[in-house]
Design brief:
- The complex is a heterodimer of chains A (251) and B (671).
- By secondary structure, chain A is α+β, with helices and mostly antiparallel strands.
- Helix content of chain A is 35%, strand content 13%.
- In chain A, a hairpin with a 2-residue loop joins strand 6 and strand 7.
- In chain A, helix 2 runs antiparallel to helix 7, helix 3 packs antiparallel against helix 5 and helix 5 runs antiparallel to helix 7.
- Chain B has 18 helices and 19 strands.
- The chains are: A alpha+beta (251), B alpha+beta (671).
- Chains A and B meet through helix 1, helix 2 and helix 3 of A and helix 3, helix 5, helix 6 and helix 13 of B.
């Protein structure tokens, strides 16, 4: 396949308090083997060489695990390929002559900092409100094999723990709900004996913080699950609600 | 030149750490409340240190350049974490882990530090399980292990292919608990741009708020750097895009010696570069070499035909393939250590046998493994007359079960199906064993400034074993530093709050501000990436997998010249007091341009081949090992620790002589 010429429509916003707008750019000779972010690098190099300011976007590991990258591409979080972060999306998913819309993740709880960079610190604060097991690092806990954990539970906990905290679930949800994110962390601990001790308080505290951050409610559309690059599934939200309910019933 | 003292405690190696802990000075809990500690970096080392220090009662200020501490690059580690638990009952022990690590490091690490690492390795697993890290388990509910990196026991704990992620999220959760208690004050999107030294002691840092561009002063009684390695000096590496050496380099400029900069690990199984636009490289677990066979075409005409797309690798008959690792190393074959496998791939590609458009790729072929597993399965299933197609089908199932996630990752990036055609791989810079020199306390040559994890130099010698980086990061952060730092801080219980309103802070802040403003006002003609790529080319070609005197001298001159050009002609758009990603990069590349030169200088000084450092002048002559790496224990069994004197060319070498009392030095052989 020959290289591509593309039109990019990108959200530009100088700062948190400035008004933003979509701006058109052209890039030429884009290889199908490039990653989406490498295509953005080409654009930025072009902008710098012509004396313009490059487009700011969050990215770091570029191998789909750190959760930094966050673009809304053609109306989808992380673009058109399922189970993929923006950094692992390749240009072979596009074709010559395409126009690509690139916007930041949008949610009340994720204010734009600049261009495509958003503030996701609300996720950190949800974790700080209970996303841990209260054990000190003494090195004198019991032996790691003292409590056997059924493989099935351990595997489910691992599936929930695979969340990379990118925020695609929030950006995709029409209510900007963070329930998939919060449910995944609550589930990871709820499934392990070590986490059961504080399970009730954890669910209540994390959900309260989630609400305080201004995330919306869940109306079971399932869009979050579809767009999650790591395949975190809806059963985590059900488990969170179960933990929450059993907590409130027990006072 | 002076001789450096590693402050290793006396006594038998088995008792050193225990005795040290028995005698070390402690700070009482009431006094800890009056002491501040800065931790820079929130990966496995920094994150675990920040959490533990806060639990102990110190007031911690933690800094990371990412938007959340959870995103530090430890998160990308795949394979696992070693620990001498001996859960498999296969003869593992603290001593064996210690021995494997020293030998794997080609006898260039500090024995006492490595033994301590092996001792605390078991605590890490206990701690992480208590934290809720979902390690893989077997059907009995107990922890599972895999073998790794050519050692003789199964001591690697793992969480699918995301062990680094799970361990980091564990440390992050421990940090979150302390952030919620107010014991850690967390500074996300902040970059450390200088260490402030007051009366000879590290008393704070200058940091830039990356959102506003504001320059901030932060004081503390001690500063801990857990800021990772410097692999991105090569431009292309498996590090994250933001991974940088700036914090370490600033400490170096303020008096911290930099040790063994030339020790770099180049990992053999990475996905090759596909073009000039490439921004980073992706590693695939070395476990692939357990079943994959590495080869290139034996005939140049086949190479040409492959590159022009006229020939498929599967169409090349066996007799026209060169399985060069099996040819050169019949005993270890495809399972030679990382450094040996990487150099051999480079040798074939330099000779013109590389199989992709850039000429820098070799094949990793699973066809024979698929047939071997398929035949085994057919036998198990009693399918005596299984067709060739059926055998392949059965074999692919097994290969999928073992390596499915890696094959998927390859397919996503390279757009080829590795079940049908061989993978293409090429070595890539992955980890740096060198780093800031530290003594047994993990303290640098600046009193009160500590370096932990990949940022220091002490545990991996000239080559790191697989699954040992995670172990070292967490050992330093959870179990070593929190003890050793108390010894130093016990002298600070009456010091009181450190003021930032002093001449030292003002001077450091001024220097930082002037440099940043200089960069944005430079209005040159070339982008930061232009310089970074140029530097990467010099490093890769002349300080990469194979080094010689002529090339290293050229590298030193070329890097110095490039650095001069950078300061004249670099262009950084935008201002200093706003979110400016080009400015962030510019500062980091400016530091890499100094570090790169010191790297070459160190490589030139070390005229021996050891671990990841291969000098063409130091090879075995004749005999069965002809042409293989030759270590020189008589002249080079020392740590090179460089003192900053203005320019890298003026750096002064200090030596720490390495002593091996418990392990006999041997030449590695894989023939």
């Amino acid at each position: 396949m020959s290289n591509m010429n593309l039109t990019l429509k990108i959200w530009r916003q100088k700062g948190a308090n400035d008004k933003g707008k979509m701006v058109d750019y052209k890039v030429a000779d884009i290889s199908e083997h490039m990653s989406f972010l490498e295509m953005m690098d080409v654009l930025n190099e072009q902008l710098i060489n012509s004396g313009d300011e490059p487009v700011a976007f969050d990215h770091d590991c570029r191998e789909g695990i750190c959760g930094s990258c966050s673009m809304f591409i053609n109306g989808e979080a992380h673009g058109p390929v399922k189970g993929t972060t923006t950094c692992q999306l390749h240009m072979r998913s596009f074709k010559d002559g395409d126009t690509i819309f690139i916007e930041p993740f949008r949610a009340k709880a994720f204010p734009v900092i600049k261009d495509l960079v958003v503030d996701r610190s609300a996720f950190d604060r949800i974790q700080q409100s209970g996303g841990f097991i209260s054990v000190n690092t003494s090195g004198n806990t019991q032996d790691a094999n003292a409590t056997p954990i059924p493989k099935h539970d351990a595997d489910l906990a691992m599936d929930a723990a695979a969340c990379i905290g990118c925020g695609a679930c929030v950006a995709t949800c029409k209510n900007s709900s963070a329930m998939l994110f919060t449910g995944a962390k609550i589930s990871q601990y709820a499934l392990l004996p070590q986490g059961r001790v504080e399970a009730r308080d954890r669910a209540q505290n994390m959900v309260a913080q989630m609400d305080a951050e201004g995330f919306g409610n869940c109306t079971n559309t399932g869009a979050c699950e579809v767009e999650c690059p790591k395949g975190i599934d809806l059963s985590n939200i059900a488990r969170m609600n179960r933990e929450l309910l059993s907590g409130s019933l027990n006072g | 030149m002076s001789i450096l003292d590693g402050k290793v405690p006396a006594g038998p190696i088995k008792d050193k750490w225990k005795t040290y802990k028995d005698k070390v000075n402690l700070v009482n809990p009431a006094n800890k409340r009056n002491i501040d500690v800065i931790v820079v970096g929130t990966g496995l080392a920094g994150g675990s240190a920040a959490a533990t220090l806060a639990e102990q009662g110190y007031n911690v200020k933690a800094f990371c350049y990412q938007d959340s501490p959870r995103r530090a690059h430890s998160i990308a580690a795949q394979g696992g974490i070693n620990a001498a638990k001996n859960y498999q009952g296969d003869g593992d022990s603290t001593y064996r882990l210690f021995y494997d690590t020293v030998k794997g490091g080609d006898y260039r690490s500090r024995e006492a530090n490595v033994h301590r690492l092996a001792e605390v390795s078991t605590n890490i697993i206990d701690q992480c399980v208590a934290q809720g890290v979902p390690f893989a388990r077997d059907y009995g509910g107990l922890l599972d292990n895999r073998s790794f990196g050519g050692v003789l026991v199964s001591r690697t704990f793992y969480a699918k292919g995301q062990t680094g992620q799970q361990l980091l999220l564990g440390a992050y959760s421990a940090m979150n608990r302390q952030i919620a208690r107010g014991k850690i004050e967390m500074f996300n999107r902040h970059e450390m741009l200088d260490v402030v030294v007051v009366d000879g002691k590290a008393r704070g840092i200058i940091a830039r708020n990356l959102v506003t561009g504001e320059i901030e002063r932060h004081s503390a009684h001690a500063v801990v750097l857990g800021t990772g390695g410097y692999g991105n000096v090569f431009f292309l590496s498996t590090n994250a895009m933001g991974s940088n050496a700036t914090a370490a380099w600033k400490a170096h400029r303020r008096g911290a010696y930099f040790a063994n900069p030339c020790y770099t690990q180049i990992h053999p199984t990475c996905i090759p570069r596909s073009g000039d636009y490439q921004s980073k490289l992706t590693l695939m677990s070395e476990s692939l070499r357990n079943d994959g066979r590495i080869w290139v075409p034996a005939r140049k005409e086949d190479v040409e035909a492959i590159r022009s797309g006229k020939l498929k690798p599967t169409a090349i008959p066996e007799e026209n393939r060169d399985y060069y690792l099996e040819r050169r190393y019949p005993a270890f074959g495809n399972l030679v250590p990382r450094d040996v496998a990487s150099r051999a791939a480079k040798e074939r590609c330099d000779e013109g046998y590389g199989v992709n458009a850039t000429g820098e790729a070799v094949y990793l072929d699973f066809a024979s493994a698929i047939v071997r597993y398929g035949k085994e399965q057919a036998t198990i299933k009693g399918e005596v007359d299984a067709s060739e197609a059926r055998i392949k089908e059965l074999g692919k199932e097994i290969v999928k079960a073992k390596y499915g996630n890696l094959f998927d990752m390859y397919k996503q990036i390279a757009a080829e199906n590795p079940y049908e055609t061989p993978m293409m791989i090429y070595p890539a810079v992955h980890y740096t064993m060198g780093g800031i020199w530290v003594d047994y306390n993990l303290m640098t040559t600046i009193p009160g400034c500590y370096a932990i994890g990949e940022a220091n130099f002490s545990d991996h010698g000239a080559n790191r074993l697989g699954a040992s980086a995670l172990m070292q990061g967490l050992a330093d952060g959870y179990f070593v530093l929190p003890y050793t730092i108390g010894d130093y801080l016990s002298n600070d219980i009456r010091t009181g709050k450190i003021s930032t309103d002093t001449a030292e802070f003002a001077a450091a802040e001024k220097e930082v501000t002037e440099r940043l403003e200089g960069l944005v006002n430079n209005k040159g003609t070339r982008s930061v990436d232009y310089y970074h790529k140029q530097l990467g080319n010099i490093m890769w070609n002349k300080c990469g997998m194979s080094r010689n005197e002529k090339g290293l001298k050229e590298a030193i001159a070329e890097i110095a010249e490039l650095r001069e050009d950078f300061w004249k002609n670099v262009s950084v758009p935008g201002g200093a007091y706003e979110l400016n990603q080009e400015l962030e990069k510019a500062g980091r590349v400016a530091d890499f341009l100094e570090l790169g030169e010191l790297f070459a200088k160190d490589a030139l000084d070390r005229n021996e081949s050891c671990g990841g450092h291969f000098r063409e002048e130091s090879v075995e002559q004749g005999g069965p090992q002809d042409g293989e790496a030759l270590r020189d224990d008589v002249n080079y069994a020392y740590v090179s620790a460089w003192e900053y004197k203005g320019k890298p060319s003026d750096a002064v070498l200090h030596k720490e002589q390495l002593e091996f009392k418990d392990i006999e030095l041997k030449q590695r052989s894989y023939k």
